[in-house]
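ok trying again, last paste got cut off:
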Amino acid sequence: MYVLRLARFRVLDSWRASERMREIDFCDVFANAPDAMFVLDLSGTIVHANRQASEFLGYEVDGLSGVSASDLLAPEHRDAGFTRLNDLRESRSGAPVKRVFIRRDGSRVPGEVFVSSLLDESGVPQWIVSAIRDASGSATSERMHAETAARMQALGSVASGVAHDFNNILATIAGFAELARAQVDSDSAIARDLDRSLRATQQAGQLVNQILSFGKQAAGSERPFDVEQSIVRIIRLIRTSLAGNVTLHLESDHARAPLYGDESRFQQIIMNLCTNAGRAIGDSGGTVVIHLRSDSECDPPEVVITVADDGPGIPSESREHIFDAFYSTRVGEVGTGLGLSLVKSITESFGGTVVLDDTERGASFTVRLPMFQGSEEEEPVVEIHTGRSGVGTVLVVDDDEAIVEILGRLLRRAGYTVMTTADPFEAVQLASTWRDDIRLILSDFRMPGMDGVSLLRQVRTDGSVAPAVILTAVRPDIEAVDAQSLGIHAIIGKPVDAAVLTQTVAEAIERAPLR
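nice, full thing came through this time. structure:
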């Protein structure tokens, strides 16, 4: 133990002036260090190791003495180990590095290595002290993170595909309801029933946007918004997802509480917390309460939202895992285990925190978000002129023939001449043949064989300059410069609102340069 005692005397000598300094037994420090510790001679042979080192490598403590440190390294790291050893003969310490070690049973284990030379009284390196931190936990964590990311991406792709197909179905339902609604008296019972059907399709469309938001396909806009108004807007949709025996309340201090960001992402926090609470309550029935208040004592001030239920609560063994992706307490039931993981991710993207509170009954989650301190802008008011009369020929292309029929009838009702096709390749031919007559191209984005952007690139090559409007069930990733070069005036989400459609088509044609 000469090396360790020498180290103790040298440290004491350097700190002798401090009256508060008491003698430290560095033998005990070495033996009880939390990491694997080694003392090597300048040739790289181990002269002493602590208990953690033996556990890390699977050897008896005495069994490591006399072993060359390079023999414990994985073959691919041995050359780098020799180089590092030579460097330490000339310098005091080296930067930490990651290495893979071979345990006694032949298994491999990663470690992060910290090394330093131990000098004699004349300042000449005599020994090398090495500390190795077990990195197998972090490696496992990194691997699990990568696997989780891959699964999330896969689930996002599935969600995107399901949302696309479901939006097409909604577009068909809403479209035919719009056409039927226009043919009946506004005061009739049929009109009222159709209006309720249209409102239901709008709610379903909002639910699809939640799915797209999980799949990161939805294009959100960041702006200031009022938290209370945002929660009020989403409560109706939340109630439709809860069982009939579950009651939902909002309790608010009604203070000004603006946030800045993507409102749909914020609403997803509330949606997921309330949905989880409702499922926890189950068939027994109960209450979910959203508490909203402003905390002006914080710097910056915070918006505080608590979602509490009077259900059975969360088992103690599950509390530390509830925010993990794919973890669910509902064993055997339908669920992805993504809700709370997504809540945490979105909350952190707003710069906030979410915690599970300690409660005597049920479960309670508190979300704290920094309040927006800038000036709030008024939301733009969009006027929709439903009776606007159209002039010109519109080419409509969508691979769903029902949607083609709906769009064609809506535009004809608005006064346009309409060419329709469910085949994008036929649409290219029509655009080329009737190049001088077509005033606008209305195309679906996702179609088999040729998507809407590819279609527009082809018709531009053939000389068509008619403006375009893209319809989509999934927000396409189109750069602004591409949209401008392709003559895309607007992108409209499905299901299509008839008034928005006719207004957008009219504006696109009016703003197009004269030919």
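cool. Residues 481 and 487 are 10 Å apart (CA to CA). DSSP finds 14 helices and 17 strands in the chain.
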